[in-house]
Each structure stands twice: as C-alpha cells, then as structure tokens.
Design brief:
Layout: E1 8-9, E2 18-25, E3 28-35, H1 39-60, H2 68-73, E4 80-82, H3 85-100, H4 110-116, H5 128-136, E5 143-146, E6 151-154, H6 167-181, E7 187-191, E8 195-199, E9 208-213, E10 221-227, E11 230-236, E12 244-245, E13 250-251, E14 256-262, H7 265-277, H8 280-289, E15 294-300, E16 306-311
Antiparallel strand pairs: 1-9, 2-3, 3-7, 4-6, 5-6, 7-8, 8-11, 9-10, 11-14, 12-13, 14-15, 15-16
Helix pairs in contact: 1-6, 3-7, 4-5, 6-7
C-alpha cells in the first residue's frame, strides 16, 4: 500500500484571529501561525523567523557547498575544523539522540543515502562492494567533538553527515526562540507539516488544536490534539520514499508512520526517525526509559488494516504536556 508522510492540520474552525505566513526553505514549506497579534507586527516577526530558517539552511545543508556540514564532509582523514554555533549545537544533539537510540538515529548516514537512493528517493541497486564501503563510512564513532572550542575532528574514515532528519526540527526550535524575543506569545511553527512546535494557546483552547491524519488515507483523522510548549515530529514511508536503517544499512519496508511528542521539535524529529527503524519492543523500552517522550506508531498490514500503537500516551499522564489524544 502507498503510504504518505504523516501530516497535521489546524482545523478551519479552530478560531478567528490566526494569522498565517509561509516561506520555502530546506526543500519544504515552513509556516508560522500567530494568534492575537497586530497583523503588521506579526508579519515582521514571521519574516525574521523565516530569515533564521534561511540562515540555518546555509549552515546545515550538505547540498550547499559553502555550508559548515559540506566543509566537514570534505575534510581529509584526520582533519579538524571549527563549526558555527548552530551547526555544532545541532550536531551535538544528533550525537546525543544517536546514543539514546543505540544507533537507530544516525546523521552520518549520507554515504548510505547516496549509495541506496537517488535524489528523488528512488531505490538504487548498488554492488555489494559499494554498499560495504558506504556502511564503513557510517557511524558516530568516526567523529570527535570538542565543546571547548566547538570543533569537530574526523578520524581515519570521513563520514558523510546528513542532518535532514533533524535539521527542520532544529530550525523550528530556533524560529520559536526568535519569536519569543519578539514577545510573540501564541504561535505555532512547522516545517513541512512534519516538524512542529507550539507555544501559548488560541481562544477557547488549552493550546493549539490540531489534527493528525492517517498516513494511508489523508482524509481520515486518527488523532485530535491540543499542543502547547512541546514539539511534534512525524516520519513516514511511501512509494518512492525510503528511510534507511543505519544499523543494517538497508531501507525499511513501507506501510509505517509515526508521530513523536517531545520537549523540542529537534528531539521529536530525531526520535520519530529512529522509531521508523526500531521494532515495537524497542520503542516500548525507549519510552519507558524516556517518559517525557511519547510515540504514536501507525502500521499498515493490509489494504484496510491500520494498526495504531501508543507509547506514553496513557490516560492521565499528559496533564503536564497539556495534550489530549483521541483515536477514532
């Protein structure tokens, strides 16, 4: 079955007074929703937030030759370089989430991505020799990070870093931080509908009312949430789009999607990607060890068979996160 990336939406009847601004960056569309502010002031604030996303793309994208990440990927074995603060911070967070997921999340996966996928995410058929070479260049152990001077050193093998699975979430968090400086109190920001953070609330709600749609039937709502002061990250696989398991160096099968609620959009992005390659038992174990992270997994086992599995979304456990979830 064809399965799309999971998406979220703000219901049309949520409330009046929501201002919406859009901008293309990081190969997707970022949107800023602001409630209860003067339109001119809100537009100026959103414009600055979008400038922040553009700035971060110049630092984080491996497809921009002058970016810090491209320069890092081009080092010779044993090379070392200083990174800009945000590039270093994003990479440090990636290292943290890789360790917490025991390698299920890994941003050194660039060589495997290039080996197994075309630029439009179609599967390739590399030779075994080429695949083994790409696998050998994958792994966080190839990097040494120094917090004292924000430098990164590559060891004997130079990995290819790809922050695509965490970069949009990181940008959303930075945009939210900037909007806080503008005293924007009620705001929701998303990057491509799969990386989300909301703060404050709209009239009549405890947060921002959103819906999550079925990955196999976009018109079917599988969850209604009110989100405030936390992030959401969504990942999914559909025909022609694949997520690679860095542990096995192989693309995962289709028919799977998940949403993760976490303290930041960065964390939610990383963990949602990890959950795509983790077995259900691994997800359950992870959520037990990280009670502040909650996962909703959707698996398609047949044309009409859609299973929804929740980890950490137990009734009465969400008061502090101000989140409600109803599976229809």
């Amino acid at each position: 079955m064809d399965i799309s990336n999971p998406g979220f939406a703000i219901p049309d009847n949520a409330t009046d007074g929501i201002l919406r601004f859009s901008h293309h960056a990081m190969a997707t569309v970022f949107e800023v929703f602001i409630y209860g502010e003067d339109r001119v002031y809100a537009r100026q604030a959103a414009h600055e937030a979008f400038r922040e996303a553009d700035r971060l793309e110049q630092e984080l994208s491996r497809f921009i030759a002058s970016s810090d990440i491209s320069c890092l990927n081009s080092l010779a074995p044993g090379g070392e370089m200083l990174l800009a603060p945000d590039a270093f911070d994003c990479l440090c967070q990636a290292v943290k989430y890789s360790a917490e997921t025991q390698g299920a999340f890994d941003v050194t996966i660039g060589s495997l991505v290039d080996c197994l996928l075309t630029r439009d995410k179609q599967l390739k058929s590399p030779s075994q020799e080429r695949l083994l070479e790409a696998q050998a260049r994958t792994g966080m152990h190839h990097l040494q990070l120094s917090e004292s001077d924000q430098s990164v050193k590559v060891l004997d093998i130079v990995p290819q870093i790809d922050l695509g699975a965490i970069g949009k979430g990181y940008a959303v968090d930075r945009m939210i931080a900037l909007l806080k400086e503008w005293d924007i109190h009620n705001v929701l920001v998303h990057g491509g509908t799969s990386s989300v953070y909301a703060r404050g609330a709209v009239a009549g709600h405890k947060g921002w009312p959103v819906t999550l749609s079925s990955p196999s039937s976009p018109g079917k709502i599988i969850a209604r949430l009110e989100i405030a002061e936390f992030g959401l990250g969504g990942s999914g696989v559909r025909k022609g789009r694949h997520i690679i398991d860095p542990r096995s160096a192989s693309p995962i099968p289709g028919g799977k999607a998940c949403w993760v609620a976490a303290k930041s959009a960065t964390c939610a992005d990383a963990i949602s990607t990890a959950c795509m390659v983790m077995a259900r038992a691994e997800i359950a174990q992870f959520c037990t060890a990280h009670p502040d992270i909650k996962v909703m997994l959707v698996e398609i086992s047949g044309e009409d068979a859609e299973g929804v599995f929740r980890y950490g979304f137990e009734e009465g456990d969400l008061a502090s996160a101000r989140l409600t979830l109803n599976i229809s």
